[in-house]
Specification:
The chain has 16 helices and no strands. The protein is mainly alpha-helical. It is globular. It starts with a helix and ends with a helix. The relative contact order is 0.12.
Length: 258
């Protein structure tokens, strides 16, 4: 089994190829074909949420699959739209809901909402990336977290954006070598702690982001080894290997500037 660092790098170096592989999966292709063939026929919020197959596809595309059962909750969000800053979706701390409502903007466009690209190919593109990350997580949650952080990084504008997202904040804590118990500290103090150790602007620089995620995947591997055959200490005295914490992973860690 490949370690976290190597698995992530293999996917990250060619995301389009990885997405193509996801698209070719029979179940994914079948659900996507159905979605594209039918989403344009949806003319109302009720039509949308009552077509479970379409609705679940759309919810998964926005990382909200676990909330697909909460239809009344989503109906309220969709009905109020996003044009008013005090709307239900806009007041939620999790911005995925506002993004979802903006993509399926029945409040603004009525019966034509599903004809816009955001509701069609835009949703499909997000579904593919979401599925890629979920597939990676089936064998290594660290790889899924790294891919998720890579996707979200361009939209991170403050440490509060990170702290509002448990997955993003988990990645940062791991990269900084901080215990999960830090998450219970005052949010302003957490933001100050992160700011002292990292330059948030680096997340918008592809090279610096890659360095950060190399550190994360390396430390994740140490804390969550993909194999128990070689420990994080004994690997320093072992011969190069392709499992566990490999020599190239340790060398990459040594090169990190932090």
């Amino acid at each position: 089994m490949l370690n976290t660092y190597t698995s992530y790098q293999l996917i990250a170096k060619d995301i389009p190829k990885a997405i193509d592989q996801v698209e070719s999966q029979p179940v994914v292709k079948r659900e996507t074909d159905y979605y594209l063939a039918n989403i344009g026929n949806v003319k109302s919020i009720d039509d949308f949420v009552n077509n479970t197959r379409l609705f679940n596809y759309a919810m998964k595309a926005y990382g909200l699959e676990d909330m697909a059962y909460a239809k009344a909750f989503m109906v309220k969000a969709l009905k109020e739209g996003v044009s008013d800053s005090d709307s239900f979706a806009n007041k939620l701390s999790d911005k995925r809901y506002a993004d979802f409502v903006k993509a399926f903007n029945f409040a603004a466009y009525g019966s034509t909402a599903t004809l816009y690209s955001s509701a069609q190919q835009g949703a499909v593109d997000k579904y593919m990336r979401q599925t890629l990350e979920e597939n990676a997580g089936e064998t290594n949650q660290g790889v899924r977290l790294a891919l998720y952080f890579q996707r979200k990084a361009p939209d991170i504008n403050s440490w509060y954006d990170v702290l509002a997202d448990t997955a993003l904040s988990s990645v940062v804590r791991t990269a900084l070598g901080l215990p999960d118990s830090i998450a219970s500290a005052d949010i302003d103090k957490q933001a100050q702690m992160f700011e002292q150790k990292l330059d948030i602007a680096d997340f918008k620089d592809p090279d610096k982001l890659n360095t950060f995620l190399t550190r994360f995947t390396s430390l994740w591997e140490i804390n969550n080894p993909t194999t128990t055959a070689v420990t994080s200490v004994s690997v320093l005295f072992a011969q190069p290997t392709t499992v566990g914490i490999s020599t190239d992973l340790m060398m990459a860690m040594q090169k990190l500037k932090f």
